[in-house]
Amino acid sequence: MRTQWWMGTLGALWLGSACLGQVGIPGFANRSRGESAESAAGAASGMETAAQNPFAGSVPRGTASGGELALSLGDAIERGLKANLGLVLTDQGAASARGARRVSLSRLLPTVSIQGSESSEQLNLAAFGLKPAPGTPSVVGPFGIFDFRGVVSQTILNLRSVDNTRASTENARAAEYQVKDARDAVTLVVAALYLQAQAGASRIEAVKAQVAGSQALYEQAVDFKKAGTVPAIDVLRAQVELQAQQQRLIAAGNAYEKQKLQLGRAIGLPDGQAIRLTDAMPDTPAETVEIEEALRQAYAGRMDYQSLAAKVKAAEWAKKAASAGRYPTVDFNGDYGVIGPSVVTSHGVYTASVGVKIPVFEGRRVQGEVEQAAAALEREKAQLEDMRGRIAYEIRAAMLDVKAAADQVAVSKSSVELAKQQETQARDRFAAGVTNNLEVVQAQEALAGANENYISSLLGYNIAKASLARAIGGVETKIRALLLGSK
Fold it and tell me: What percent of the chain has pLDDT over 90?
């Protein structure tokens, strides 16, 4: 079966690649989209475990209901966007980046604290090299000390901290873009799994029709055998074909149930929840888009590309921050409070100071940090340029896939009609006694193959359309119109 070509389209699924390595999620770091389809859900289906690919798993919600849950494609995507493990982990990565930004920003803001103490002391003046006056004991005390004050520290000038804060701001922005990219990834993964399950349902219907046809052929052969018009071999041949179709029906039913389980895992359905797919396999034509317009949309709408651009800016600020290690820093420290032998006999005191620190020699530490930051910047720039080229490649490849898949759907649809005519004529010839039922069995096998090719072609066509949308960007907002033809 022609399912190989589209292993790449589903890598598009698994896409996610990168959906998220940028936030520290395995399989998401490279932002590549890859291969294709029957494994559209093959990528989706042969499903790596959630530990290998978080987009294959989810955080289940609720408890299973007693009956079947009617599930449309839109419902499945909505559930996936709430419970898919890949998106949950990406959200946490973004939250971590926001936290890192706040930590960096705190270094530019004042710190205020309140401290107090009450103590009792006894001092030996001789221990400090002090000689008491004649007639005065060398041991003083015990005496009490009460100290209560507020302390303020403020960085007045620290260019390194300023630039680090700007870098962390860009990193937080990059993480937010990754969340949006992850939403697109989840949309595509769920859509592929739903489409695969739809294809499984179509296969069951097609095989049921084949079973019914084989049953009719078997019964006809038995009747003809009783009438003495055909030999026993025709009955045996028809019985073998009937059992072969029954085996296919069992296999198709088992595969369909497993496909629904895979879909349920990706969208967070509780264990044991039965589902019924309500949307039929789409057969809407793909929208036409010029390559120049597709590239323009991709550079503006691909969140993985925007995330990399933000990381380049973050790396630029990080390099400036490293260079700023050579510059002086200015800090203010002050406190105000009361001190005395006790609370009632205390008196107000304060301290205010401004300090300047000028780096003179730090063992070339700053130079080393600048070199590290410069290398990191060049890596990010290289990845951004590679992403531009990859986007162009992915769009062109996806357009080729869409065209090829559309042509395959047209050819396979015609093949189904021809195979039906062939089967009808073969049945008529057998009923007329012109030939034995070998022609009918061969025609049935040809029709079964034509049906399978059509289902696989239609599945590949829909995955190719979804992958093209993923390559252009914004698949979350386009998926319904893309697959269902709705606006």
Answer: 69
